[in-house]
């Protein structure tokens, strides 16, 4: 083509790499020279071209096929962030060109490239819907999650589709964390039976949750300690919901409920009247529990094991009452390990170690969250959550390794 420079011509214009980088980044560099620089053997030079907003569509298409994923990722990030910064008239002119290039890159085999696009477009309202749906369905959750959680392009029907079947836990959690979630989608999150997603839903103050749905979750919260705090903190609790919570929440959340300032005076007075005996009983029980030695707790747990009474429900009751010694002993006996192993996992605050002990005990992930919360004092956002369908989030090999480590290090 007339006026086009060959790579040799480029080298004549700037023999050193630094000079070629300056030309590649220059806003006044001739289009033909930019096209040649886009084929430069230097990664740094091609990266500078990818970041240059003055390049033509032809050069963008060339860079979208670059052999190095870093160049393609830089191009995706620059294009994705370009449109919102332009005047409306220029946005319209560039729209087709921009989205066509991104539509090609969104199928890139490189996770880095797709992640760059997701990060750039996650909150944009004028992105083609097909592009957003492609990102939301990506098998790499770090790509899908920001789009699922934040994209204004996704409709209620899209979110329901993502929750249909057996979605990945992280996908369900991302949906549950979306601002302004409708009651219909909230119901679908609950129907997914994903405990981590339900907790995220309850912790989302902008999610609309139907009163009947909230009532059903409160009824199940006695067995889900990690739901109780977000339930107690839910905005606009109905008097019925507040009274129901008063009857089931663990002692560490009773004060939060009784201290709420948004409840009607008569409701608050009734809750406090009902809590009085329970608080006194819990305090006495806590003193009794604290007085139980490790030896006594192990003797109790071994007796329960012999009588066939050491099951998940019994362990959950101990966890909900805050009985650290008894819960630790039950876990040790059920797992067939010395109590020192459970105590070591708690001291190390090892979420993986405690989950491995739950697995070794033959219990399900249903008890793993309260075990981590009570025994290791881990914050809710740091605990290991169940995988899809409530399965363990670690492989059997990983859990065996954790158990071996705890046995060796005690």
Strand percent estimate: under 5%
Over all CA atoms, what is the radius of gyration? 29 Å
Which class best fits the helix and strand makeup?
A: mainly alpha
Q: Output the number of helix runs.
A: 26
The helix content, as a percent range, equals 55-70%
Please give the largest β-sheet. Answer: none
Structure characterization notes:
The chain is an all-alpha fold. The protein is built from 26 helices and no strands. The radius of gyration is 29 Å and the shape is elongated. The relative contact order is 0.05.
Structure keywords:
0% strand; 26 helices; mainly alpha; single chain; 410 residues
Produce the secondary structure layout.
Blueprint: H1 7-13, H2 17-25, H3 31-37, H4 43-50, H5 57-63, H6 69-82, H7 88-105, H8 111-121, H9 129-136, H10 141-150, H11 156-163, H12 169-176, H13 183-191, H14 195-202, H15 211-220, H16 225-232, H17 239-248, H18 251-258, H19 265-291, H20 294-306, H21 312-320, H22 324-335, H23 339-347, H24 351-361, H25 368-375, H26 396-409
